[in-house]
């Protein structure tokens, strides 16, 4: 999970970086459409030309997964959401795709929906949503990359947990926190939403959490060191469900253990305002469900120098909170 998490956040940040570059030239898109036509992907070639002025005018980089002609014959012209599901604003060379572990999510132009890697680096072929892509790109100029696929991706695809397959259970594992991720993205917390998506791929559905989510701007300013991505998420997550009404009941000096070993969130008050490691809560109860609470912050919760950054909440905290009862820990 950690490897998948780090790589997928790298993809998200790459998307942000490439958004600062110049848009793809129209000539590049037209050249790609011509090559698609010449290699037998006529329907997708025509589709790419049709959407180039409306769907792609501000695209700075792009990876396209092009269904073959029989897919169009069988399904007809795709809807706009289905078409967007086959476009990613990230340039994804084959070497990158081959290196991604099972379960890594690739953001698409269909808002809030991602493709899921269903192959592993040891496999001969790369598959997304259980659909294999061509062994090499049809077109690749570094910023626009196009792969062929035999069929359209399924919008309702749900990632399958490899552990379930090994046990012969045959159970799919949908992300129960997708709604929360959508809410976060809609109000400017996309980076933490991506962290949450990937964390949930390996988390049991019964796990309760409280997430303290910094805004995109402060997250992107803070994520300068690739090796620190995982700890950034883990130190903002408490392994129990704490509403705002629970937080305000805690006494000053209460320390909440997090999923980052050795890191606690200390509750204090300043002028009557509740503070978490001297950071005020900006958006209490941004999202609520039976399993999850998200509170918005405008700053990150900093790690002290020399602190060991390893994952895992304390056993004492886990066992004490199995019943979702907030406990006043004062160390």
TrEMBL record:
UniProt cross-references to PANTHER family, sorted A to Z: FASCICLIN-LIKE ARABINOGALACTAN PROTEIN 20, OS02G0491300 PROTEIN-RELATED
Taxonomy, superkingdom: Eukaryota
Domain FAS1: 164-301
SUPFAM superfamilies attached to this UniProt entry: FAS1 domain
Residue ranges, annotated region (Disordered): 312-331
Keyword Signal listed: yes
Protein name per the record: FAS1 domain-containing protein
Sorted UniProt keywords: Signal
Keyword Isomerase among record annotations: no
Similarity comment text for this entry: Belongs to the fasciclin-like AGP family.
């Amino acid at each position: 999970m950690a490897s998948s998490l780090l790589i997928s956040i790298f993809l998200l940040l790459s998307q942000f970086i490439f958004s600062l570059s110049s848009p793809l030239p129209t000539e590049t898109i037209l050249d790609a459409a011509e090559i698609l036509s010449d290699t037998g992907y006529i329907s997708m070639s025509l589709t790419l030309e049709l959407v180039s002025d409306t769907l792609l005018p501000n695209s700075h980089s792009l990876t396209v997964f092009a269904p073959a002609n029989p897919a169009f014959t069988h399904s007809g012209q795709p809807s706009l959401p289905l078409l967007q599901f086959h476009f990613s604003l990230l340039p994804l060379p084959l070497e990158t795709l081959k290196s991604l572990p099972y379960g890594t999510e690739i953001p698409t132009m269909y808002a809030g929906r991602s493709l899921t890697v269903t192959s592993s680096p040891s496999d001969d072929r790369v598959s997304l949503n259980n659909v294999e892509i061509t062994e090499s790109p049809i077109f690749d100029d570094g910023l626009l990359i196009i792969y062929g696929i035999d069929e359209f991706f399924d919008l309702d695809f749900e990632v399958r947990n490899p552990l379930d397959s090994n046990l012969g259970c045959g159970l799919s594992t949908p992300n129960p926190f997708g709604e929360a991720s959508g809410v976060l993205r809609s109000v400017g917390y996309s980076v933490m939403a991506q962290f949450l998506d990937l964390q949930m791929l390996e988390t049991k559905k019964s796990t309760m959490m409280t997430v303290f989510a910094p805004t995109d701007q402060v997250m992107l300013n803070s994520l300068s060191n690739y090796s620190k991505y995982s700890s950034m998420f883990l130190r903002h997550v408490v392994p129990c469900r704490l509403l705002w009404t629970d937080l305000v009941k805690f006494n000053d000096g209460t320390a909440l253990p997090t999923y980052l070993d050795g890191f606690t969130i200390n509750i204090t008050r300043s002028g009557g305002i509740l503070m978490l490691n001297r950071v005020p809560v900006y958006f209490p109860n941004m999202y609520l469900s039976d399993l999850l609470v998200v509170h918005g912050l405008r700053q990150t919760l900093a790690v002290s120098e020399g602190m060991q950054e390893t994952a895992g909440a304390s056993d004492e905290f886990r066992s004490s909170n199995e019943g979702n009862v907030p406990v006043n820990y004062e160390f």
